[in-house]
Every structure is written in structure tokens, then in C-alpha cells.
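Figure S4 source data
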Amino acid sequence: MKTKILLVDDEEDILDLLEYNLEKEGYETIRAMNGNEAIDVAQKELPDLILMDVMMPDLDGIEACRRIRSIQGLEKIFIVFLTARSEEYSEVAGFDAGGDDYISKPIKPRILISRIKAILRRELDSKDPNTLFVGDLEIIKDEYIVRKGERTLSLPRKEFELLYFLASHAGKVFSREKLLENVWGDVYVVDRTVDVHVRKLREKLGNEYIQTIKGVGYKFSNNL
């Protein structure tokens, strides 16, 4: 069965461009031209991923995303925002609403396809959650082992657990508070603890794996 992608934009030429490039890659596409229509189509068609513009009439993409996330059966659909807006606050609002990624216009088809493949790959990776393969990294959860190319890296427990958590949700942005909650649990530590652990991971792995999203938090790159 083909992967189904819902395209949401109020400009026909953008929809035509997206449809052409995605169907050329073997994806099935369906369309909506505003946020309200996107919600209706998503409930009927149950797409695997929604590619949605932010600025649209009737209901914008951010509010549509927030409503989709609240509907039973749609809460786990991948949602990627498309927008010409570059202001930091709109990116923050998109992630806060539950977006999985954020791609700026003008659309570059090769980059778009690469990002979509990386996001959809998370669904496959989740079937074997013990071992992750990301770029040139192999992360083995049960053994607390990280291999980078030919090297085996020794990481302290919390560094490893932070790396595994971020890598298993590649492309998704987490605030420091969410990382503390998911990695450290009930142990009281300050936000700065996350920054220190990220810095140490970058020293050992390189800077390309964990990205800082200004004003939001951190994410593991999905373009490796």
C-alpha cells in the first residue's frame, strides 16, 4: 500500500508542484485548500503524513494542526509545515502546536523529499526500538553502546539516554523541560543540565547530530 500524503495549501500551483514531485517518488497524494478542509479530509482519508501551509484563509495551519492532534485516531499523524514566513515565533508556534517539522518556501523538491523520507523512516525504526541506525551512528539501547563508523564510543548513562531519546524522535523538537521529564524523570536537576549533556555529546559525536532550535530547545537532525 502506498504512503498517503495530504497536501494542504491555498495556492493551486503549490499543490501542483507538491503533487508532481511526491507522486513521482511513488507517494499517493490528496488535497485540501484550507485548515477546515484539511481536518475533514484527514478524518476521512487517514493520511500517513500531512504537508500543510501555515498562512491560509478560514483556518490557518497552526490551529488546524492543534485541532488534528486533539482528534482520536489522528494524533499520531506526521505533520510538516510549509511556509514562506521566516520569523522565529511562527516556527515556535508550529512546534508547540504539535508539528513534526518545518520547511520554508520556496520549495526545493530534493530537500522536501529527503525530509519526508526521514520523517516516515521513524515509523519503520520504531518497530525495532532497541537498535537505531542514524547516519553513521549505531545506537544499541540494551547494551548502552554507540558505534560511530569503526569506533565504539563510551558514554555515561545519562548522555547515552539523552542521545537515544533524541535519536529515536529524530526531527522532533523538545524543550529542556520535556527532555528533563523524559530522560531524568523525577530526579531534580536544573535546565542547564541538558545544555551540559548536549555539549558533551557534541564533543564526542560532532556538531551535526543535535541541533539547537533557538527559543524552543533541541532536536536530533533528520538530514543525516
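Figure S5 source data
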Amino acid sequence: MLKTEADIIEIIKEDPWMMEILHAAKTLQLPDWWVCAGFVRSKIWDVLHGFQKRTSLQDVDFIYFDPLLIDEVIEKKLEKELTMLLPTVPWSVKNEARMHTVNKIPPYTSAIDAISKFPETATALGVKLNNENQIVLVAPCGLDDVLNVKVRPTPYFSKETEGANIYEEKIIKKNWKERWFKADIQHIG
């Protein structure tokens, strides 16, 4: 069973598809980059549910932080570059230096700051390869929720604000309980 950060890193290391994605992402040499969210969470939950087949992903979230080049056109160009490397991967590339405007919150200070403000704690995860091609895992909200298949809002999204509405809408849209029957989903209000 998965219990630690090292366990999570090991299951990713043993997954050729995930490693191929991480190596492709690294080739872009972008500042403060991470492959994150469902890419990591789904792998963990699939293993915890004993699934032999990977749960398909709507997209593979690749983020980076570059406050100097915040044009969305650049992100689309990067998606095309990644698609040329791995054409079957549904890439979604976002520069987190501009994405705070989508969630209507103050600017992020880094990609990790952005990850900490994803709507759910179990999805506030990212992985990348360091210079030695070792997997680095970031979990600014901790690993307890993802390892216990709990879905709770991150602090910003837990308030009775527009953030709470975004969180609730996402929970309904994603319908995680249908895919991962062990999911314990917390609602706000």
C-alpha cells in the first residue's frame, strides 16, 4: 500500500507512461515547471483501488511559472511542441504567472504557490524531474488526503466565497465517486 512520499515516487518511477511524460516535459526547460493535479492524484487513487488499468485523463496538466512571458499564445505553442513529442497525450499547458486571473485571486508567487491554491487538497500535487532525472514530488497541502482518498477544499476554496462555488461545481462535474468508490468527498456548507 501507499503510505509515504517515497511510495508515491516509486509507483511513478515504475510507470513508463508517466516517466515518458516527465521526460518530455523536462525537454522544454521551462522555469518552475511541474506535471500536476490529476496526473498524480489519479495514479495514486488507481493504485489504492487496485485498478489494473489506468483511469483515463481528460488532460495532462503541465504548469510552469514565467512572469516575463504571460501570453496564452506561448502556452499553445508549447502544447504543440509537446504534442509533437507525445502525440497521444492530451496536454494542457498553463503559465501560472497569469492563471490567478482565472480563479480571481491575488497573483501567485510560484508554481508551487499556484498548486497550493488548486481547489482540492488531494489534487494539489505536482511532480517533475530534477537535473539528475530523479522524481521530485511537491504536495503543499500534504499527502494525507490523497493517500486517504479524501476530497476537501484547499483553504482558499473552503470559504463561503466564490471559491466555494468553484469547488462544489468541480466536485459535481468530475464525479470522482463514480470512478473511485473509496472517495470521501467533503461538501461546503
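The domain at 5-150 is CATH 3.30.460 (Beta Polymerase; domain 2). The beta strands are 34-36, 60-64, 91-95, 126-129, 135-138, 150-151, 184-185.
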